[in-house]
Write a structure and sequence with these properties.
By secondary structure, the protein is an all-alpha fold. It has 15 helices and two strands. The termini are close together. The site of magnesium ion (MG) has 3 residues, from loops.
Length: about 300
């Protein structure tokens, strides 16, 4: 996304991405290399940017949100590594490079995912330790860590992934597909926005608006992902298209048709933009982001 604020926050998160990993014993250097390989594979860093942007939107300091923004990126990266494993989607290519298990082996890829997930919680808890004696600073951090844990967990991303696995080659209702998309993908996008809002000290009206915005762009993000899997450019995407249909995965285009999928994407994007309208100039980043996510080609 060309928006200067997106570029600024992405560069900031990228610059500090390895700062919140613990110092690794040289005997575990393979683990560190495997984690770094996927962390630095050139993703959009959407979830970390969202933590920082919503923290700033709520009036907070982005530097203080970095441990949480990076934790989001660690969790997102673990989920991609595990999602690509032979037991799950069995993909060979991600972000234009061989997937983690293709380079480091299946055993190390599983452990690199485990490592990244643990590092996310270590990073957030280490940050909280600094504020044990200052409740006003500790509270937003506890809230943010809770939002991130919930979004990533068994009533969020993991739940969506379980349904995604179980529905393969089985009949799927439109309601179940929405459940999968909302949990597998939107839960982490909402968690990033809510965590940032908590860190920035948002009031309940702002938190509610940002949550509704996150829900709309989160579902729109996965619908667009489904559309790109049909009509995307493999070179830009950095992975083969058509893998959903090949694996018997229900998607928006399969269940709703391409026209209705596009219409739903537009409707969700417009809803997200409308939610940020009352915030005037301050909400411009979020309106532009919703627009970009609907037209993105990677
Ligand atoms: C691509 O994000 C990722 C998605 C569209 C989400 C799909 C959901 C999963 C992989 C969940 C897997 C869960 C488990 C528990 C294994 P992106 O386009 O932002 O990727 P980028 O970081 O490469 O830009
Ligand atoms: Mg998958």
């Amino acid at each position: 996304m060309k928006n200067p604020q997106y570029q600024e926050l992405k560069a900031l998160a990228q610059e500090h991405l390895l700062d919140f990993l613990p110092e690794i014993d040289p005997k575990s250097s393979t683990l560190y290399e495997a984690m770094k390989y996927s962390l630095q594979a050139g993703g959009k860093m959407l979830r970390s940017v969202l933590v920082l942007a919503s923290c700033r939107f709520a009036g907070g300091d982005v530097i203080s949100a970095l441990p949480y923004a990076c934790a989001m990126e660690y969790i997102h990266t673990y989920s991609l590594i595990h999602d690509d494993l032979p037991a799950l989607d069995n993909d060979d290519l991600r972000r234009g490079r061989p997937t983690n298990h293709k380079v480091f082996g299946e055993d190390m890829a599983i452990l690199a995912g485990d490592g990244l997930l643990s590092c996310a919680f270590e990073a957030m808890n280490k940050d909280k330790l600094l504020y044990l004696d200052d409740l006003s600073k500790l509270k937003p951090r506890v809230l943010a860590a809770y939002e991130i844990s919930k979004g990533a967990g068994c009533r969020g991303m993991v739940a969506g992934q379980v349904a995604d696995v179980e529905v393969e080659n089985r009949p799927c209702s439109k309601e179940l597909l929405d459940y999968i998309h909302i949990n597998k993908t939107a839960a982490m996008i909402m968690a990033a926005i809510r965590a940032g809002a908590c860190l920035g000290g948002a009031d309940s009206k702002m938190l509610n608006d940002l949550t509704s915005y996150g829900e709309a762009i989160g579902l729109a993000f996965q619908i667009k992902d489904d559309i790109l899997d049909v009509m995307g450019d493999e070179a830009l995407l950095g992975k083969p298209i058509g893998s959903d249909a090949e694996q018997g995965k229900p998607t928006y285009p399969i269940l709703h048709g391409m026209d209705a999928s596009m219409a739903r994407l537009t409707e969700l994007t417009e809803r997200a933009i409308a939610l940020m309208e009352p915030y005037g100039e301050k909400g411009e980043f979020f309106r532009e982001l919703a627009e970009y996510l609907a037209i993105r080609n990677l």
